[in-house]
Amino acid sequence: MVGRVCFLTMKRLSSSSKRVVNNVVRGEIEWELRPGGMLVQKRNVGDVSSGPMIKIKVSHGSYHHDITVPAQSTFGDLKRVLAQETGLEPKEQRLLFQGKEKDDEECLHMVGVKDMSKVVLLEDPASKERKLDEMKRNQSILKAYEEVAKVRAEVDKLSEKVIALEAIVRGGTKVSEKKFLVLTELLMVQLLQLDTIEANGEAKVQRKVEVRHVQGLVDTLDNLKARNSNPFSSSCNAVSVTTKWEAFESGVGSLTAPAPLPSSTRITQDWEVFD
Questions:
Q1: CATH number belonging to domain 48-123
Q2: Average per-residue pLDDT for the chain
Q3: Nearest-angstrom CA–CA distance, 161 and 166
Q4: Which of 92, 97, 101, 100 is nearest to 124 (CA)?
Q5: Which residues, by range, are in coiled-coil regions (predicted)?
Q6: Rounded to an integer, what distance in angstroms lies between the CA atom of residue 217 and that of residue 11?
Q7: Which label site among 80, 206, 244, 252 has the fewest CB atoms less than 10 Å from its CB?
Q8: Whether pTM exceeds 0.90
Q9: How far is CA 267 from CA 82, 260, 264, in A?
Q10: What does the pLDDT look like over 26-68, one tens digit per residue?
Q11: Domain extents for the chain?
Q12: How confident is the model at residue 25, as a pLDDT?
């Protein structure tokens, strides 16, 4: 008979009864073995022809859902239907009927669920806590993104000023040293602002990129400041290095030290100087 539940355990299944079950499985009716050795007819929730349909009133907090399922569905079947209505995965659901939580394997009609019966849906506490933690992390990441974006906007404005200042200095125009100091201080303020942002994941990467951007602008200002102070700093540095190497090669440790002048010559020259 359709919908008839066979209470057969594995121990009670004889070889002859097993053959009967195999024959039934090969027929139109398909059976499945539930945990604990219960053999029941396999049901498909979406198959209307599998039996009479019932409407169940499911209460989920302040929400109410009218769910229509085959009368001989299991609570696991009901959870799968509710997942589409509520967005809660079956493993995140707890179903209570008449004040008692029901297992997925329990059949609705076996525990007294009828048309217009009321079932309570609760979200699993562990699942709810995980979602709250994930929501907090997402909010934290979003906040970090927004804070980094604010700093980036300010740094971009300062970057334009650095570029303009660089064009002036490289053009040979003398610039007040105060302009370099002011821009450097403003960039350092943004660098400190980045340091106060708590970020994780991709937001942390974005913060690091912006920190390097600011540091690069500060280095550029330092180079421009040195160039502005001495437009010929490059050539002077080259002469200075050459001079140092000449002094080293003609001094202590050199391969050809300069020959000392005769002592008499030095005295004569000294007297001539005093005269």
A1: 3.10.20.90
A2: 75
A3: 9
A4: 92
A5: 141-168
A6: 80
A7: 252
A8: no
A9: 113, 13, 5
A10: 445 566 665 555 555 555 544 544 579 999 999 998 889 999 9
A11: 1-42, 48-123, 130-229
A12: 42
